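Hello, quick one for you while I still have it in my head. Could you read through the record and tell me how the tokens relate to the sequence? No rush at all, and the record is pasted right below.
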Amino acid sequence: MGLKRGFILVSLVLLLLGGVSAFTRGFNLGIDFAGGTLVNVKFKEAPPPENRLREALAQQGIDPSKVVIQPISDPISGIKNEVLIRLPQREIGQKTGSPESELDVEKRAILAALNTFNPPSEVATKLDLNTISRDRLREVFLAEDPLRLIPGSGRAAAELEYTRYAEAIIQYRDREQGGLLRDLADLRAVQNVPTALLQWLPQRFFTGNAAMISAEIVGPQIGQELRQRAISVTLASLVGMLIYIAFRFEWVYGVAAVIAVFHDVLITLGIFSLVQKEISLNVVAALLTLVGYSVNDTIVVFDRIRENLRLRRREGLVKIVNDSINQTLSRTILTSGLTLLAVLALYLFGGEVLSGFSLALLVGIIVGTYSSIAIASPIMLWWQTWRSQRQARRPAARSKVAEAAPSRKERRATASR
């Protein structure tokens, strides 16, 4: 407890830095909260430089300064041939008001941007089989009729056959090849598709250098609702823990624990603002995990303090708190250290998708372990000391009032006069 002022000063500095960054730079809110479009793009080889991707998007009317491009590496092979492109919410011509229509516009813009990385000669005369949809492929089959089914079987029967062939080709591309064909020769493995049709494909199609694996859109209202829910869930968890700890120990312990947890969450969010790491629903899940983990460490210390208070009633509170922290210190550091190693491995090797989640836990475990020792206990100690001093002043004040008041005999003598 001799270093408690220094610990509090360190916490205040971290909170101040995080607060200044949050008010000046803000938070890098993900698509879940800010709204916009998230597109996963896969390339045959390594993705082109980021500046070239931004230039291609700018040609489609997308502000490149507001686009976030995040490479994705395969957690097993480590190959980086995918990117996540985050596009901000924007006004798109005359909106129809439905998210699907906006998503279609954004998908067309992305596909047009990706098309700039294909050979111009191929783009001018052929269609990209890596970006074409099943319905569009069926339409091309019907229009070209490479198997001459319409004259012999009629248009309705030909449409059924070409629909089946188109579906088989697209399913093979998406399920077996991960959404990207490297060569038209790969389609030889597709079953129930005539060889004549496969041999005809190179006349009309080519396999582009990139494909859009997935695309999703989150409207601003949905993002705002998710933000409100995330805040509500976090606050509700803090209130629930306050009630439980107040019932299990004393309400002073509950207040100290909640302040320490709130301190952990604020510092973690401040670091996310400083490094401009994206805050997504995964990060919110990590913060809720952090809340429970931090309170668990704090309760271990508080439980030892309560036990020592019963066993060592004649000793001072400061010494009891110090001894309790020392008795639980090795256990706290050991358990937190082992958890930290697991989270560190997740951060280093878990890929970009889990990087935000693991970073929040990584920072939170360090700060939470620190706060359970250096923040929660001093707050409880200061509160108990202030309450004891206040209770000690009350009898002294009463005795002074009693001494100043006249006795019964003096009042009778005064009355007889």
Summary: The CA atoms of residues 31 and 218 lie 6 Å apart. The radius of gyration is 33 Å. The chain has three domains: 4-28+219-396, 36-117+211-217, 131-208.
